Amino acid sequence: MLGKLTGFDDTIVAVATAPGIGAIAVIRLSGQQAFPICNSLFPAKNLDLQASHTLHFGNIVHNGKIIDEVVISLYKGPRSYTGEDVIEISCHGSPYIQQQIIAATVDKGARLAKPGEFTQRAFLNGKLDLTQAESVADLIASNSAASHQTAMQQMRGGFSKELHALREQLITFSALIELELDFSQEDVEFADRTRLYALVSNATTIIQHLIDSFRMGNVIKNGVNTAIVGKPNAGKSTLLNTLLNENRAIVSDIAGTTRDTIEEILNIDGILFRLIDTAGIRDSSDTIETIGVQKTMEKIREAGVVVYLFDVNELSAADIQQQIHGFETDNVNFLLVGNKTDVAGEEAARAKFDGLPILFISARNHDHIQELKDKLVQKVMAGDINTEDTIITNARHHAALQEVQQSLQDVKNGMDNGLPGDLLALDIRRSLHYLGEITGEVTNEDRLDYIFSKFCIGK
Ligand code: GDP
Predict the structure, then answer these.
(1) In DSSP terms, which residues pair with 334 in a beta bridge?
(2) Mean pLDDT by 10-residue block, N- to C-terminus, for the chain (459 residues)?
(3) Does ligand 1 come within 6 angstroms of the Cβ of 312?
(4) What is the CATH number of domain 129-459?
(5) Ligand 1 neighbour 267 (Cβ under 6 A)
(6) 341 C-beta closer than 6 A to ligand 1
(7) Ligand 1 mean position to 341 CA, how many Å?
(8) Sheet holding 224-229, edge to edge
(9) Domain boundaries, the chain
(10) Is 218 a pocket residue for ligand 1 (Cβ < 6 Å)?
(11) Is it true that domain 12-127 has CATH number 3.30.1360.120?
């Protein structure tokens, strides 16, 4: 695998900190020439003679000119992020200095790193598997407590461990089938079909759990589209403002003034709700309003959760029943919120809509807004997914897992129809292939070795 990659022997260099001016910037080099290159620019000490994981203070000098006073951190491979020799130069944060140091290292033989190349090398050197490498990117991009936690869990290998266990089970299955093939003349039965069924069914359950977690993973990573809908004057803009605690949307007494869809983001318990304020839902002869209504319908279909807000003083219980029916027919994940309870009182509202699953609030008075936030979280966290479980956040993993599941289904169908072992083995290999795609493992490893390590034929 390594041999096919070009440029792998190069020593790469890049600024590891954010672009722009900061107090300090870090320039990272990785590769066989990292030490010689830095040695030629760092007269204070011979870096080759220093221990790994140590810091060294001195000047970076190039063509007789001092560029900066820096601190150099040494990581000798394989005990480094990439598995190669790595040097990090902490310099002053001026973009000019950074650029000068980079140019000096390039002059001495380094090459500018491509995006993700340090992590790619870590993967190629077996420091990380593919899912862990991907989670490094997720971790860097994480913008909420929840997305940070899942990326961190994945980087530590939680997901890989689960996949590894699964792979072992499938290899066992494959091994059993192939043993039968090898010994078919002798009519040896290594595995009764009941055991094979159990193996496949167990694997299917685990994979289904992972596949199901993607909905949650997606919510955690990308946030959830949240539409606040309801008739004009229900108080949608007021609620939006209350939730966001700022006044971006237009609040007006004139019906239907909120014509645009405005997106705002709310962070509740570490989950990002992308709030879409929409024009009111109603029949209208006004063209602009009709476009607004159409947009609203589209948004509702796209939304992960829909907050239906209504004025408790205006609508009847029958209206709400009808609304519920509509949402249920369209398979919408909805939350019913009765607004303006301050007018006639909360008790009166409760009595009026007795038995209906409504959360009563006053957007204007900020009554029960915390409950509304809690309910929103519950709505998107619904299901038996536990945040401690492995959660799939990556669409590539999700797609591959669906392929694994399909292959396993084919194995099961194959067994039901009494397919010969070699055909079953094909489907199993297909599922192993897709699993291997996720972690980046080579899938056609020597299965026979595995058989003999687990089974003793002579006994
Ligand atoms: P939208 O058309 O659904 O966006 O509704 P608005 O947010 O523009 O609100 C319409 C009117 O209802 C405004 O005059 C708001 O001040 C008023 N309103 C909103 N929430 C409440 C509430 O909780 N209680 C009362 N009494 N009035 C409210």
Answers:
(1) 306
(2) 56 86 90 96 96 96 96 95 95 92 95 83 80 72 70 74 85 80 62 80 89 80 82 88 58 40 68 68 44 63 85 94 88 92 93 94 92 87 59 82 93 88 86 84 41 27
(3) no
(4) 3.40.50.300
(5) no
(6) no
(7) 11
(8) 262-268, 271-277, 224-229, 305-311, 334-339, 358-360
(9) 12-127, 129-459
(10) no
(11) yes
